[in-house]
Amino acid sequence: MVGRKKKTKICENVSTLEDSISQLPEHLISEILFHLSTKDAVRTSVLSTKWRYLWQQVPGLDLDSYAFSNFYKFVSFVDRFLYSNNESCIRKLQLYIGHHHGMCDISSWIDDVARRRIQHIDLSFDISYRLDKIPPLRLYICETLVHLRLFGATLVDVEFVALPCLKILHLDLVRYLNESTLEKLISGSPVLEDLTIYRYLAYNAKVLQVRSKTVKRIHIDDFKVVIDAPLLQRLRTKIYETKKFEIINLGFFTKLDIHLVFRRHRTYNSSMIHDIITDISRVRELVINNGIWKDIFLYLKSGPVQQFRNLSSLNAEFTKSDLEFLPLILESCPKLESLTLEVVKVQSMRREKKIDPKVVFSTVPQCLVSSLKFVELKRSISGYEGERELIRYLLKNSTVLKKLRLDLYYSQRAMNVFLKELVAMPKCSTGCEVLVL
After folding, report:
1. Top-level CATH class of 254-437?
2. For the chain, which residues make up each domain, given as ranges?
3. What angle do CA 107, 112, 113 make, to 5 degrees?
4. CA distance 19 to 191
5. Which ranges constitute the DSSP H helices of 188-269?
6. CA atoms within a 13 Å half-sphere pointing along the CA-CB vector of 137
7. I need a labelling partner for 245 at 20 to 30 A (CA). Which of 31, 35, 330, 359 fits?
8. Distance between CA 252 and CA 229 in Å, rounded?
């Protein structure tokens, strides 16, 4: 009886909720369906007679061609949706098109939505089969487009680009008949804020010029680029063999996210290290993996002490063998407020020392005394004996620390022993909260 009563109550709640939504004006229901995929929106047609055709009024199309039993049905569905009411506004077009895309006219679809006040275009093509039909010229002069994302497409060369509302441009594995097309897309977007470009150039391609007075976030892969963006807040990039990006504006940007793709037995030249250190000195937040720490520290030790006075947040990976350099980096960051440290496996076992290094602080870094408020330690590998001493040191000497978060790799038995030791550790900051995951 108890189970039946609960079931009846749940059904009553669902029925009440459904009735409440059905009583909304159709334009509000259409707005709710707009945030669903087209497949899910169509499913609502079985709810009642009122809902049967509401999905057709949704100003957006979000489809995966593989969701259809064959490609002809996918093409037929898109055609009927776009041309059944070709005077209505279409705000969003999001399609994933499989390798049969040659049997549909992508250009005509884009041309149609571009004249219907489209705001969001997201097109993905199977990279095994390159797109042989390129978007129409109307795409480059769309006055309402705000967000453009293309994956696996090919863009036609144009003389003129005018995208007055475009704020987000995301190009992934996109080819260009003329490389100048990309620079025209950037310069022809006067309010662009977010730019992502992933591996579109050959290694011998010319240097890309990113010149924008409005762009705030840039995510680029491994290709040559010169950035002139005075409002830049975040740069995210990869480095394979050499540093290929250059920032020529003199302002300070907020965040630098560097991922170095490891190559065995590789060292970086001093010029490259100097350039990276210069970029680090200009940011307030730094995210960096372990691929280059040893080279940075050796460079720092060879000259005068480098002070990263703007750095307030550091999210870094270290190998066990590189942890001995941690005191030097903390001494170089007198205003550091947040430290996230992850101990990871070294890529090449030849670089790993057989004896775990000890993190030795000859003095207490300035940041521990005056600014460091949050520390997170992560360890996804077992076997670092110096971990407890590092935690003990941080708790004992961090004057203003508010939270210490520990995400560690222990067996249940070892964790119990560690927790007992942790409770007994003295804390300089009495208000510090310690969380163990």
Report:
1. alpha beta
2. 254-437
3. 105
4. 43
5. none
6. 4
7. 330
8. 11
pTM of the complete model beyond 0.85: no
Structure tokens at 362: 């000859």
Measured between alpha carbons, how far is 399 from 373 in angstroms, rounded to an integer? 9
Q: How far apart are CA 346 and CA 334, in angstroms?
A: 28
Task: Output the tens digit of pLDDT for each of the chain's 437 residues.
Answer: 444 444 444 444 444 445 666 666 766 777 777 777 777 777 776 666 667 667 777 788 888 888 888 888 888 888 888 887 777 788 999 998 887 655 677 888 888 888 888 999 999 887 765 554 566 778 899 999 999 999 988 888 888 899 999 999 999 988 887 878 889 999 999 999 999 998 755 555 678 889 999 999 999 886 788 899 988 888 888 877 777 888 887 566 688 888 776 555 566 777 888 888 888 888 899 998 776 777 777 777 776 666 888 899 999 888 887 788 888 889 889 999 999 998 887 655 444 555 566 778 888 999 999 999 999 998 766 667 778 888 989 999 999 999 999 988 788 888 888 888 888 999 999 889 999 88
Tokens standing for 383?
A: 């076997």
Q: Which residue has the tokens 């720490």?
A: 293
The β-bridge partners of 286 are 256, 314
Tokens matching residue 273: 């290290």
Nearest to 151 by CA among 181, 123, 185: 123
